[in-house]
Amino acid sequence: MYEFYYDYLKPKYSDRCKLLFTDTDSYCCHIETPDLYKDMSQNLELFDTSNFATIHRLYTTKNHRVLGKFKSETGSLEFVGLRAKKCIPYSSRTTPKNQIRAKGIENLISKRRCVMNNFLLS
């Protein structure tokens, strides 16, 4: 993970890549680029895109569950990240998808109180 961040992301994006938060085996970055998927396609061998929508241009099962390959926890969706283990994936291009992930919070509470629109900027 360290090598990917410092040897790939930082040289490629410089100060346009900011580390937002980390977890045991993952991290979340804010990357400013016109087309992240185009950037990924140039080095697709580094990524596991098997959880992208099957109609997505980068979808492939080639690196499915291959150790050392980086995978988007939300697939090809955007998400609202509150902190590690607490995020709400959604798609601004289609109907909002409410798959709330809030580890340590009971499902009933997270479904009632963690509403995606409460966290988005208008």
Describe the model:
By secondary structure, this protein is α+β, with helices and mostly antiparallel strands. It has 3 helices and 7 strands. The chain has a domain at 77-122. The strands form 3 sheets. The protein has a 3-stranded antiparallel sheet with strand order 5-6-7, with no helix packed on it.
The counted number of beta strands is 7
Strand content: 15-25%
Q: Order of strands across the widest beta sheet?
A: 5-6-7
Element order, helices and strands? HEEHEEEEEH
Q: Quick one: biggest sheet?
A: 3 strands, antiparallel
Q: Span from first to last CA? A: 34 Å
- Oligomer state of the chains in this structure: single chain
Give the overall silhouette.
Answer: globular
> Whole-number radius of gyration?
15 Å
How many H/I helical runs?
3
Low-pLDDT sequence parts: 94-98
Structural class call reads: alpha+beta
Q: Estimate the helix proportion, in percent.
A: 10-25%
Mean pLDDT: 77
